[in-house]
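Morning run. Coffee first, then this:
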Amino acid sequence: MRSFLSVNMLLPQLLTDLTQLLLNMAVPAAICTMMLAGVALRQESGVNFEVGGRFQKWVLWSVILLTLPQFLSWFASQGIPTQPQQMAIVGPWLRSLDSSLTTFVSDFVVARFLPVLSAFFVLKAVLDGAQGLNPLGSIVAGLFLLSISGTIRLMQSFNSGTEFATSDMLISLWNYVSGTILPEAAGLAVVGAIINFSRNKPFFSLVFSSLAFLSVTALWKLVQAMVR
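And here it is:
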């Protein structure tokens, strides 16, 4: 089998630059897939998601894109030649294209398009409320879209840098959701239960939801113990 270096040296410079361009587009592409995840979240109700649905798939693609260099390093460790990381693009046209695409995502998609899309979901929440529907789904989707930049930075901080960074990031996301998001959701459920109680409306479902949110980690450990 040819070595990694010899195979790479045989590649034309144009193909090497194109490969590096695609690798450089991993983070901007992850931002776009997270935007699609936010839209899919609203389509799947806004406060819940379908197992194997589009929200779950787009988030998984975001994780893969953010850990693409580490993901490819696993193949390199198995003896499969891959493109070296952090190589400079030699061709001036492709180098300009790389800069233009990165600027487009940061200056247009993140800075301008995402706030407008989030505002559209806020309008949808108002229309839902006017029709007597629950506006919470649209509000959650709008908040998700506005927090994409911070979410991407958080996910990047979960990158372990190892060959198994993809699975490590998924585990870290699970720990963040169960340890940070769910306790806050439980607190909001308690507040909602108190408000419903004061207005003589059903509140037991919110109390049950609060207890369930706080018990997710314990339930997961119980399931793990049962299968061992």
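Residues 164-228 form one domain. Good start to the day.
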